[in-house]
Specification:
The chain is α+β, with helices and mostly antiparallel strands. The protein is built from eleven helices and eleven strands.
Length: 291
């Protein structure tokens, strides 16, 4: 694919690949800008109805126009009918890469709050528009070189049913961020994204996920049936409001879950007064390479 021109996009390099498709860096030869092209795997778009649903949701996501949501420029398809998304291309790294960086020794609490607040701001904008992400996880979060957070893949996760998630071979990362209602196959609303945000916050603060195991099914069983290790026991130095925020986001029943982000906004405004660093515990052997 490298070197080929599709429509008016010249493929320059592969940026990454996973269960939700392959992403390439490309040159827009008309507007002379660098973009990212995401090609969706054919098994997600099995018929015209599925393509129409995806197109409608992606169009809605493209209209969000928020600083913390990846900009979608266009939806197009190849001559043989393969759909791809044209997105803004950002210089930076995924939150997954940041967490997994081998020389990652410490992360200031202020930075954790800043990242979490930016994710929450993007989600709030989407939820206001009636759009649920459904697959919030570190590999879907880009942190640019300027420290701006960008949420990727709005409109894509809805294509993948729970059955597909549990059958693919690279889904452990996804399973670890699923809400209890997603695991059970219950209807979901915006609160499923807040659970996933809670998992990310827990992971950034403690260096481990709240639920982790060798197999997807074991992780999902824990999500529904087990309480996570108390984060205050893992990090006794955390400010109480931050501990309460994690607990509120990780309430198993959606009705008990934190339903607004006022507490997070309060922490964001006070982050300059917080001190200390987050020193993650030794990570387990579980891979997070699923995207």
């Amino acid at each position: 694919m490298i070197g080929k021109t599709i429509s008016h996009y010249k493929i320059l390099d592969e940026l990454g690949h996973g269960g939700m498709g392959i992403v390439y860096k490309a040159e827009d030869t008309r507007l002379h800008r660098t973009v990212a092209l995401k090609f969706l795997p054919p098994h997600l778009l099995t018929d015209d109805e599925a393509k129409a649903r995806f197109t409608a949701e992606a169009q809605a996501a493209s209209a969000l126009d928020h600083q913390n949501i990846c900009t979608i420029h266009q939806i197009d398809q190849t001559s043989d009918g393969q759909l791809f998304i044209v997105m803004a291309c950002y210089d930076g790294q995924t939150l997954q890469d940041l967490i997994e960086t081998q020389d990652f020794a410490s992360l200031p609490i202020e930075k954790v709050i800043d990242i979490t607040s930016q994710i929450a701001a993007g989600l709030a904008r989407a939820h206001e528009a009636g759009i649920i992400h459904r697959d919030i996880k570190p590999s879907n979060i880009i942190i640019t070189e300027r420290g701006e957070v960008k949420i990727l893949d709005f409109g894509i996760a809805k294509l993948r049913s729970q059955q597909t998630i549990t059958k693919t071979g690279s889904t452990l990362g996804t399973a670890a961020y699923m809400s209890p209602e997603q695991v059970k196959g219950d209807p979901v609303d915006h609160r499923t994204d807040l659970w996933s945000l809670g998992v990310i916050l827990y992971e950034m603060l403690s260096g481990r996920r709240p639920y982790d195991a060798e197999y997807d099914q074991a992780v999902m069983y824990q999500i529904v049936n087990a309480a996570p290790p108390d984060i205050s026991s893992l990090r006794p130095d955390l400010p109480l409001p931050l501990v309460e925020l994690v607990q509120g986001l990780l309430a198993k029943h959606p009705d008990d879950r934190l339903d607004d982000l006022t507490a997070l906004q309060s922490l964001q405004s006070e982050k300059a007064h917080l001190s200390g660093v987050v020193r993650p515990a030794k990570r387990g052997t579980t891979s997070q390479k699923a995207r």
